[in-house]
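Weekly modeling sync, notes
Attendees: S.R. (lead), two postdocs, one rotation student

Agenda item 3: backlog of single-chain predictions. S.R. asked that every request posted to the team notebook include the full sequence so nobody has to chase files. The rotation student volunteered to paste the first one in as an example of the format we agreed on. Action items at the bottom.

Example entry:
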Amino acid sequence: MKKLYEGKAKIIYTTSDPEILLTQFKDDVTAFNSSKRGIIPGKGEINCQISSALFKWLESKNIATHFIDQPAHREMRVRAVKIVPIEVVVRNIAAGSLCRQTGLIEGKILSFPLVEFYLKNDELGDPLLTRDRLLLLELASQKQLEQLQSIALKINQYLTEFFASCQITLVDFKLEFGLDSQGNLLLADEISPDTCRLWDQQTKNLRDRVLDKDRFRHDLGKVEAAYQQVQQRVLEKLGIR
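Predicted structure, as returned to the notebook:
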C-alpha cells in the first residue's frame, strides 16, 4: 500500500486495485479549523465501526455509498471517488454556528430541515456558500446541487428515525460526497460523532446530553465515554457485536 492522503482524522492508502482505497481512522481530533487539537484514545476504531455500520445500513435503504467492507477495527475499504469539494450540512435543531450567525436560541426545533453548502477549503475556513456562488465557482452543476440536497434530505430522514430508536436526537450533521470512475455520486467520508451533533434523550442535563465532538470543542470532558455510548447503541440496534 502507498499513502495517498492524510487528513485530520483519516489516512487514505492505495491498494492493488485502483478502484479500491483503504481508509485508516485516526485518534486525532481537531476543532475550530484545526486551531484546537488533541487525541481521543480509541476514537479511530469507534468512528470506523459506527461509520461502517451506518454506511451498510444506508445501502439497505438504497443510498449509494463508497463503503465496501471493514477488514480491521479502524480500517475501511472504500470505492475510489473524486471528492466533491462541498460539505453538505443538514440541520434539524438550532445549534453551533447557526445560532451564532442568526441569533436563534440553541435547541429550537427548525420548522423544516435546513440544507446548507460549505466550501471544503481549510485555508478559507470552510465558508458557507450560496447556490449561485457554488455555480460561479463551478464546483457543481445545478443538477448536482439538486441531487445533493435530495440525497441529504433522504439520509436525514433515515438517520433521524434511526438515532431516535437509539434514544439519541440527531441535531445536525455534515456529509461529503464523491464521484466514482463512472460519474456516479456516492456518499463518502464518514458518519460518526465527529461529523454529527448528537444529544442523549435519556438525560435532560444540557451538559451531559452531548454525545459528540462538542464535548472536545467546549472542554466538557468524558469525550471517549460519549463516543463509546453512541457506538454501543448503534451497534446494538443493528445487531452487531
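Discussion: group reviewed the output briefly. The CA atoms of residues 92 and 112 lie 7 Å apart.
Action items: rotation student to repeat for the remaining queue; S.R. to check formatting next week.
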